[in-house]
Amino acid sequence: MISTSPMELALALAREAAEMGEAPVGAVVVEGERVLAAERNRMKALGDPTAHAEMLAIRSALAERGSGRLDGCDLYVTLEPCAMCAGAIAHARLRRVYFGAEDPKAGAVENGVRLFEQPSCHHRPEIIGGLGASRSEAMLRNFFRGLR
């Protein structure tokens, strides 16, 4: 059962990622009222460029569900997914994607390649952007300002 909203949980995970020196992105996969997975960026920690919050959450949710698909499940993520993550979302067959901040540089949902709009994309989840956007944007801005 979800005690806090999935996006609030994703934002908390993004804060945790920033505290660990990772880009502040958190992702949560839910099935109805049940949280299947909650992850944060761990690329530095794992030495793995594919360890984006979305990828880790999808892998964990698949393991929790015990299947190769996430039909009927929703993803909440604090930043617009990149092309790699959007591809994984399509392959996992997530029903809906809620994201916070847009990513004009690397986003692939409403920016860049707009993967789900491509004729070759075999699954198109419903997309709802802007959920928790101001807090996500502020976290990202502060994190990257600190690196410069």
Strand content: 15-25%
Mean pLDDT: 96
Q: Which percent bin holds the helix content?
A: 25-40%
Low-confidence stretches: none
Tell me the Rg in angstroms: 14 Å
The strands making up the biggest β-sheet line up spatially as 2-1-3-4-5
> Structural class per helix/strand content?
alpha/beta
- Name the shape in a single word: globular
Count of alpha and pi helical runs: 5
Q: What about the largest sheet?
A: 5 strands, mixed
- Helix and strand element order: HEEHHEHEEH
End-to-end separation in angstroms reads 40 Å
**Got a strand count?**
5
Helix and strand arrangement:
Layout (H helix, E strand, L loop, with lengths): L5 H14 L6 E6 L2 E7 L2 H4 L6 H13 L8 E6 L3 H10 L3 E6 L24 E4 L3 H15 L1
Parallel strand pairs: 3-4, 4-5
Antiparallel strand pairs: 1-2, 1-3
Helix pairs in contact: 1-5, 3-4
Can you tell me about this structure?
Helix content is 38%, strand content 20%. Helix 1 runs parallel beside helix 5. The chain is globular and about 40 Å long. It is α/β, with parallel strands linked by helices.
Overview in brief:
By secondary structure, the protein is of the alpha/beta class.
Labels describing this entry:
about 40% helix, about 150 residues, 5 helices, about 20% strand, alpha/beta, 5 strands, five-stranded mixed sheet
